[in-house]
User: Which sequence fits this backbone?
């Protein structure tokens, strides 16, 4: 356990701590969380089929193997993903009610601040260099990934949206209270979605790729998200308030309960055994990625702080 060697092994926890990994073999299919922490990855083998999150953390990537089948994200994390999280946003290291990799209420992925987002995001911040309510790369207030609009998120996620099946109350894998897809924010969605956010590059109420208000991913409805999500929907044809793949009202990732999250999470639950408001890897209420304090962040982030010395409202690397 701890750092390096790992906790349980085949099933519960594998690599262990930072570098080696969080959880390994277990979960459904390939395991719960894999590579682990910073460097090695956040979540890995697990979820259903290919796994929940993959490379993960900082460096290795955010989300990888899985969700259902083989999906989820890939490179991710700092230096690989998590870019474009807006207020309440958070690609990997979700905000209030977040999820991602060990995110708690107000927590985030790896060093996310309260209401933070990606990895080292500030209050309402997002991926890398996001402003308050900002997102990916130089996005405006409420912006997201790359030029997202107000209410934007990860890669243009919209309010009420949902990344990959994450809706308000929805949740993919390891989502927090009212969390979303994979480390989504309060009412968030797929990947770095904002509050009620959506898929990738969605506008207000949008979804998939640069959709307009009421728009979505690919023909998503108002409040939609990822790809063909319904009102309040998320991933793939999810129902109102739904999330991952055909989640029910208030549902989440894979048959989550109302307000649930990842995989069989309880109401307000999260990814893999997360407590209400909790997130990725056993973080405490108000906690964050890996030992983050309430409102705290990954690596010495201050309240509202972010990745590397980000100021309140700051973001990735010294963002204001």
Assistant:
């Amino acid at each position: 356990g701890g750092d390096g060697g790992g906790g349980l092994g085949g099933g519960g926890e594998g690599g262990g701590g930072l570098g080696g990994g969080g959880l390994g073999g277990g979960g459904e299919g390939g395991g719960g969380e894999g590579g682990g922490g910073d460097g090695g990855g956040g979540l890995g083998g697990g979820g259903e089929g290919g796994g929940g999150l993959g490379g993960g953390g900082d460096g290795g990537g955010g989300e990888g193997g899985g969700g259902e089948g083989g999906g989820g994200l890939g490179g991710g994390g700092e230096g690989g993903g998590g870019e474009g999280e807006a207020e309440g946003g958070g690609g990997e290291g979700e905000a209030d009610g977040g999820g991602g990799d060990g995110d708690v209420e107000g927590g985030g992925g790896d060093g996310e601040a309260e209401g933070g987002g990606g990895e080292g995001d500030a209050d309402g911040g997002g991926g890398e260099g996001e402003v308050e309510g900002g997102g990916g790369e130089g996005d405006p207030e409420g912006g997201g990934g790359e030029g997202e609009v107000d209410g934007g998120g990860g890669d243009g996620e919209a309010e009420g949206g949902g990344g990959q099946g994450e809706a308000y109350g929805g949740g993919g894998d390891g989502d927090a209270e009212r969390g979303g897809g994979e480390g989504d924010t309060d009412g968030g969605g797929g990947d770095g979605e904002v509050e009620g956010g959506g898929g990738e590059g969605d506008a207000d109420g949008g979804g998939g790729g640069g959709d307009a208000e009421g728009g979505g991913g690919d023909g998503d409805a108002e409040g939609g998200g990822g790809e063909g999500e319904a009102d309040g929907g998320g991933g793939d044809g999810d129902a109102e308030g739904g999330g991952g793949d055909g989640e029910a009202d208030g549902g989440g990732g894979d048959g989550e309960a109302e307000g649930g999250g990842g995989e069989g999470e309880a109401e307000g639950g999260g990814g893999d055994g997360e407590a209400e408001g909790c997130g990725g890897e056993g973080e405490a209420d108000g906690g964050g990625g890996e030992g983050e304090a309430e409102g705290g962040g990954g690596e010495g982030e201050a309240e509202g702080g972010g990745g590397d010395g980000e100021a309140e409202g700051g973001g990735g690397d010294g963002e204001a």
